[in-house]
Amino acid sequence: MQELKDKVAIVTGATRKRGLGRSIALALAAGAADVVVTGNSRSASRIPEDEATSGWRGLPDVVAQIEALGVRGHAIYADVTNSDEIQGMVRETVARFGRIDILINNATYPRGVDRVPLVDLDVDLWRKIVDVNLNGTMIVSKYVAKQMIAQGDGGCIIGISSGAAMKAAATFSAYAASKSAMHTLNGSLAEELGPHGITCNIVAPGFLNTARIDMLREEGRWEKRLSTLPIKRPGTAEEVAELVRYLCGPHARWITGEVIMINGGEVRRAAR
Description:
Elements: E1 8-11, H1 20-30, E2 34-39, H2 49-52, H3 59-67, E3 73-77, H4 83-97, E4 102-105, H5 123-151, E5 155-160, H6 164-167, H7 173-193, E6 198-205, H8 221-226, H9 237-248, E7 259-262, H10 266-271
Helix pairs in contact: 1-3, 1-9, 4-5, 5-7
């Protein structure tokens, strides 16, 4: 349980109480890493009503949960699409903790009115989704990788994608295309950063029981979605987080350039 001792991790997009980013941050902390978590706004209005009514404050509460595990935590508000803010995030992390060993590119544009046929999709919304999911991943990886190279001790970069990138389902064009492009970017990064001892992988979850799929909890929609899974339940954020932690640890140092699916068998079934 101490496999990440003395490591420093950054997890982007870790504001939500029922989100994957928070679970990943806590899994890394449980492995003894110090963890920096990011979000793009201090505004309480950005916290969903159901979480706000429970008293959830976003990043400050994630940091408190990290520190309750006996390691150091820190919150940084930064927009992943803003190069200046991301460079500031890197400087602040290094000033506080001395180094960066792990990067989890988890920030994702929120699910919303983009799930429509391409002919009905707003062009500006397409650009926003690609900007956060793909360009944001590139920007954060660029500046964190420069720091890892300068340190000379290797590192680990993981992008959180989706089974949607494999399935390319109807009405998912912007989200699926942006996530699929992350896979290609990851392959290039693995080639470029491998000589520096930096591994680069993608974790692509399927149907997870997180806040992102709350709109599917209407009568009938949930059951229909579960019917597509050979394992007849949604995955949990904690299950994905444990896979991420393994990929960051000492036993996964020869795994790089990979896209690892964790989806209850759904994508395999779709392929048949």
